[in-house]
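User: I'm writing a tutorial on reading structure tokens. Could you give me a worked example: one chain, its sequence, then its tokens, then a sentence or two explaining what the tokens reveal?
Assistant: Sure. Here is the example chain.
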Amino acid sequence: MTKLPVYKDALDLIGKTPLVLLKGPSEVAGCEIWGKCEFANPGASVKDRAALWIIRDAEKRGELGPGGTVVEGTAGNTGIGIALVANALGYKTIIVMPDNQSKEKMDTLRALGAELVLVPPTKFADPNHFVHTSRRIAEETEGAVWANQFDNVANRRAHIEGTAPEIWDQMEGKVDGFTCAVGTGGTLAGVGMGLKALDERVTIALTDPHGAALYNYFAHGELKAEGSSVAEGIGQGRITANLEGAPIDTQFRMSDEEGLEWVARLLREEGLCLGLSSGINVAGAVALGKQLGSGSRVATILCDTGFRYLSSLYNAEWLESKKLPVFDWLR
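And here are its predicted structure tokens:
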């Protein structure tokens, strides 16, 4: 029997997540599609990794000390990761979040002891955007550090040093492609850089939701958004510091409907309850797998648990209000 890991520190539970072969996507793509189970992190999302690296980096640089506070602007998951890591290390947390994110994320942050500041959703150019608001709060709070997940490259280092080598080892060095969507850019850029360092032939692909500008940027050199998406935590309209130099070889754009189809299938057929960003990632992985051809092996990120979206993604009235298809079993 394989010896199961034992840890003496709860923070060691972050990362080292399982990798699972996704049967339905593999069958449709005609190759192997693998999902990195980031919902297995303590905060139930991939963002635990960035939270740990960002806080440890702030400690190393002497910016965060005993009794300090970590402030961040987030769609929710990074805030949850930061709250858990900060609790474990004795820090306070202030989280600024757009008020259109899921109720489950808000309730979770409050339950974890974070101070939650809700602001109206607005464009990044607006000084009241959640990112700018969080920076101001950090500047005005004694002993506080601003996590700055979008432009703090400790975020992508979490994936260069952690996620990428994990995927490489789990797939025994046989990785043909990797894709995921972009929120901060840390995961795609970091995993891309990490895998390219191990084998420059690995194809790295952006999977962009509608309403984001990066598909057009990498396809045509222009930051131009088209359409819209209800997916939380992904979609970007600028080149963040984490995205600078990202080794992106190709790009796909996936609709919410395509993502929801995989969310539904993975739940009904494989017993995986995931969020919409995971569904969009899987749709992109299928597209990449078809492009790379039979016998290829593609990995993607299963970002977080669907239990975080019971009031939205798994709610028939909410789906209808967004003019999105309702899962059969919710009707």
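What the tokens reveal: The longest strand covers residues 92-98. The CA atoms of residues 189 and 201 lie 16 Å apart.
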